[in-house]
Amino acid sequence: MGNRQTQLDLAQKIKDAIGLKNLQQLNLILNSEKDSLLYTYAGVLLANESLNDEAVDCFKRAGNYGISKHLKEYLQKNGTLNSDFNVFNSSEPYDVWMLTNFLKTYRENTTKACGDYFSKNSILGKEISILDLGTGNGYLIADIINSINSQANYSKIDLVLVDKSEEMLLKAKSYCLNNIKCKNLSITTEQIELNLKTFGKLLEQYEKIPFDIVNCALSIHHLPHEVKLPLLKFLRPISENIVISECNWSHDIPETGSFELIKNVSENYGCIFDDLRKSCLSEKDIECFISGIGLPEALKILTKPRMERIDYHTTIEHWSELAEKADWHVSKVVPTVIYNEKTESFTMFLN
């Protein structure tokens, strides 16, 4: 289909044709290219204009590209791509995701990266304190602590778990108590939603007892870059080490309805959905994840105004820029999942 500029030019022509409701012109463009990405792009824009039959046809013509199949099925079932589904209602879809090849690889390599890094950049002392922002079910932070502690052998570990979900916190605390290998383990839970107001109160509570490590794993991508930056600045006085483990995706800066955003979402979540099918899961589990996390997240990013997306995944490059602006040094970046030669997730160490 040509270079990136050609692709962007065609995307603009598609957007203009749909804006003018010129479906004849739209079909001429699409039929001349027969490109799955452009069909997906057109399908999303058509659905946003409530031209559902035409949108479904575009998704059909896109075939199995990215998330087109799932968008088609959702639109046919619900009559809209807008989703008000609350992705934090239950821990069950997250438990399913932990069974996928993607998350198993992410979890294993993130744990190893943390163990290797802190063994070479050791935190001195017999005790360690850790703040875990967006702890989820607690599996990963337990793995990370055990990996670090296997070499440091701390006499005491103070762990603060932060999450907006009471169900997640209860599950995480129970899991950590039963799986972290330390005889003197103290766990505090804080049920808060991460934003500047609530986080400011949290920092006031803990500013006099700085943490050795602040861990942020698949959590602060729920904040747009306007909030990520002050958050990183807030963390500077309370710790000398931040660990950021995230997906290397760009869902923060691109504008809603832009070709770049639709391309990124379709390919990124398409990667996740492809991985589900390769992870030997039951159809029930696959449906649980797709309907409980994957598709609602993708739909919100695609259709909601930018400040209502809920998920703002950010690339390694942009995280590095934010860290520098917040007076952090990027000490190391480790790829944790590579799919089709592209780094899909990473762990970044700041000090």
Describe the protein.
The chain has 351 residues and is α/β, with parallel strands linked by helices. It has two domains: 1-78; 92-249 and 312-350, 3-Layer(aba) Sandwich (Rossmann fold). Helix content is 54%, strand content 15%. The chain has helices spanning 4-19, 23-33, 36-48, 52-62, 68-78, 92-97, 101-120, 139-152, 166-179, 196-206, 225-235, 259-277, 283-303, 316-325; strands at residues 127-133, 156-163, 185-191, 213-217, 242-247, 330-339, 342-350. The protein has a seven-stranded mixed β-sheet with strand order 3-2-1-4-5-7-6. The longest helix has 21 residues, at 283-303. The model has no long low-confidence stretch (mean pLDDT 91).
Q: Which key phrases capture this entry?
A:
7 strands; Rossmann fold; alpha/beta; single chain; seven-stranded mixed β-sheet; 2 domains; 351 residues; 14 helices
Quantity of strands, as a count: 7
* CATH domain topology of the largest domain: Rossmann fold
Task: Report the C-alpha radius of gyration, rounded.
Answer: 22 Å
Q: Which structural class do you get from the secondary structure elements? A: alpha/beta
CATH class of the largest domain: Alpha Beta
Order of helices and strands: HHHHHHHEHEHEHEHEHHHEE
Number of domains: 2
Largest sheet, if any?
Answer: 7 strands, mixed
What's the topology here?
Elements: H1 4-19, H2 23-33, H3 36-48, H4 52-62, H5 68-78, H6 92-97, H7 101-120, E1 127-133, H8 139-152, E2 156-163, H9 166-179, E3 185-191, H10 196-206, E4 213-217, H11 225-235, E5 242-247, H12 259-277, H13 283-303, H14 316-325, E6 330-339, E7 342-350
Parallel strand pairs: 1-2, 1-4, 2-3, 4-5
Antiparallel strand pairs: 5-7, 6-7
